[in-house]
Amino acid sequence: MITEMAILQVRQKQTGSFEEAFSRAQQLLKQRKGYLGHELHKGIEYPDRYLLIIRWETLEDHTEGFRGSPQYQQWKAMLHHFYEPFPEVVHFNKIY
Amino acid sequence: MITEMAILQVRQKQTGSFEEAFSRAQQLLKQRKGYLGHELHKGIEYPDRYLLIIRWETLEDHTEGFRGSPQYQQWKAMLHHFYEPFPEVVHFNKIY
Questions:
Q1: What DSSP element (H or E) covers A96?
Q2: Has residue B2 been placed in a domain?
Q3: For B50-94, what is the HEC assignment?
Q4: Measured distance CA(A94)–CA(B26) in Å, rounded
């Protein structure tokens, strides 16, 4: 299992629309091979900042499988315009 | 429940010592009121970078309870010297 993580900085005053779009977009993840689960968290100190965590069986399930899929094209269209700046997405292995 | 999150940038060539110190320090968390669980993840793209997630019942269980405790003094002494720069620690509420 690997963990994909991104800090999403959402444009001012668009957090409500982002959360609504995310509630629909998250269904796209569940259709993909290797998807194990996800969480979206909203910042307490910075309410425009979100923590996105997605768990995949392998790194390639995200970087090749999901990003190369038709679902990713829909994900992009539904969500990417909310981010400013565009987030860095990184991956981790759980050790504890 | 709230989620404490920090990206820990560990000094070059000290990742082995950091992981060993963390394996002992994590026991300190479990003694504190409001502690619900934690995870430490190691970066795939950046092997000196770690993702720390700690779940608490309330924000104050972390910011007042843990940070005001004798266990935090031990935690600091065991771990803080590994970080460069010192991490920003932020909190989140889970929405999905």
A1: none
A2: yes
A3: EEEEEEECCHHHHHHHHCCCHHHHHHHHHHHHHECCCCCEEEEEE
A4: 14
| Strands A49-56 and A35-43, sheet pairing | antiparallel
Q: What CATH number is attached to the domain comprising A72?
A: 3.30.70.100
Which residues of chain B lie closer than 8 angstroms to A92, CB-CB? Answer: 41-44, 50-51
Q: For each successive 10 residues of chain B (96 residues), what is the average pLDDT?
A: 98 96 96 96 98 98 96 97 97 98
How many structural domains compose chain A?
Answer: 1
pTM of the model: 0.94
DSSP A10: B
Q: Rounded to whole angstroms, how far apart are CA atoms B81 and B2?
A: 26
Residues from chain B that touch A41, judged by Cβ atoms under 8 A, are: 3, 5, 92-95
Chain A's closest residue to B1, CA to CA, is A41
- Within a domain: residue B93? no
Paired strand residues for A8: A50
Using an 8 Å Cβ cutoff, are A4 and A72 in contact? no
Whether B42 maps to a domain, the answer reads yes
Question: Whole-angstrom Cα distance, residue B81 to residue A78?
Answer: 42
Range(s) of the domain holding residue A44: 2-92
Query: Is there a domain that residue B91 lies in?
Result: no
**Distance, in angstroms, between A51 CA and closest chain B CA?**
8
- Is the CB of A44 less than 8 angstroms away from the CB of B91? yes
